[in-house]
Specification:
mainly alpha; three-stranded antiparallel sheet; globular
Length: 344
């Protein structure tokens, strides 16, 4: 009997109901730790919620965690202490609830990977993914085919020609896959140089003599640094002479906890779809707009007050199609696309 027409309750359970996705390396690492099963339940609950939010942060009340995990409140408190000691979660004290001053606000919990697991993560096998384009060569060593990269400009024409996108014509997922393959083959010293160059907006990278990258691949990474530097320069350029002295040169980025707290507060004020639109508007106003001159927490409170009073309007200079990846603050540390299986 075909699976599609099967009435097996197990098939219906898998196809129609919610389920979780647990990375095997992390699950096996947890099995080897001397922690109680109750702590594992609490961790996987926050892991699932953080994966749904796409920022690995969740805000669940203590009593609700106890109810969902079938535990008592004291067991959940001990589980938080154990998970924090192992480096699996990070919690921030939110202080008092602004709507109920005599009660404690719900803490924001961020799930993390311990350093011990990160050190041994490379020894776990990768999933075999079907290539989406012939430009990606199916290799176990994550090699990049030279013909997938755009032609590189001559060394003498670096100042005369604009920087060419080495991944021109590829989709976003293919771009991340090719760039990740190049970064995977860098040595530890070269990777530190690349991260530091991105942070300081430098365009030069010194490779080791025994580097695994070819000349074309080295030039590709140089161009990636040039494109990132040009994008940062254009984003931080002042709009006019009058604003040159009021806008600092550094790029402001809200932290993970600030974004998670802002999302939570917006969802409590309006419906989910409107809260998503307001989140982008407030983030732009705080990072690049009129609220940039205030401290981040003060700016967020100003925006929330205007939204509660119905006085908030879309920022005037905000681009119509502006968006920012709110789950990562670093270009090269953007989390890979996570398959949530439709309903997970």
């Amino acid at each position: 009997m075909p699976i599609e027409s099967s009435r097996d309750p197990r098939e219906l359970l898998v196809r129609r109901k919610y389920f979780t996705v647990r990375p095997q390396p992390l699950e096996q690492w947890l099995w080897r730790q001397p922690i109680a099963p109750s702590a594992e339940r609490v961790f996987w609950l926050h892991w699932q919620e953080g994966m749904r939010n796409r920022d690995w942060c969740s805000s669940i009340a203590l009593k609700r965690v106890a109810a969902l995990c079938a535990l008592d409140v004291s067991s959940v408190t001990r589980a938080y202490q154990t998970l924090a000691r192992l480096g699996l979660i990070r919690r921030q004290d939110p202080g008092r609830d602004p709507t109920r001053p005599f009660e404690q606000a719900v803490a924001i919990t961020e799930v993390r990977l311990p350093r011990e697991l990160l050190a041994e993560l490379a020894r776990y096998p990768d999933r075999i993914c079907k290539p989406t384009s012939s430009s990606v060569t199916p290799s176990a060593e994550h090699t990049v085919a030279p013909d997938t990269l755009a032609p590189q400009p001559e060394a003498g024409d670096a100042g005369a020609r604009p920087t060419v996108d080495p991944f021109k014509g590829l989709s976003g997922r293919e771009r991340h896959r090719l760039l990740g393959a190049l970064l995977h083959r860098l040595s530890a010293n070269e990777r530190r140089q690349f991260d530091e160059a991105l942070r300081t907006h430098r365009t030069e990278l010194i490779f080791e003599d025994a580097s695994q990258l070819s000349t074309t691949e080295r030039a590709t990474l140089q161009q990636v640094l040039q494109i990132a530097s040009q994008a940062t320069a254009s984003a931080t350029a002042p709009a006019g002479d009058s604003a040159a002295g009021s806008i600092p040169e550094t790029v402001r980025r809200l932290t993970v906890f600030e974004l998670a707290r802002l999302r939570r507060d917006l969802r409590s004020l309006t419906e989910a779809q409107r809260a998503t639109e307001l989140l982008c508007e407030v983030v732009w106003a705080v990072e690049q707009g009129a609220l940039r001159r205030f401290a981040p927490l003060h700016a967020i409170r100003i925006a929330l007050k205007k939204i509660r009073e119905g006085a908030w309007t879309r920022p005037n200079r905000m681009p119509p199609s502006w968006s920012r990846e709110l789950t990562s603050l670093h270009p090269t540390r953007r989390p890979a696309h996570t398959d949530l299986c439709g309903t997970a």
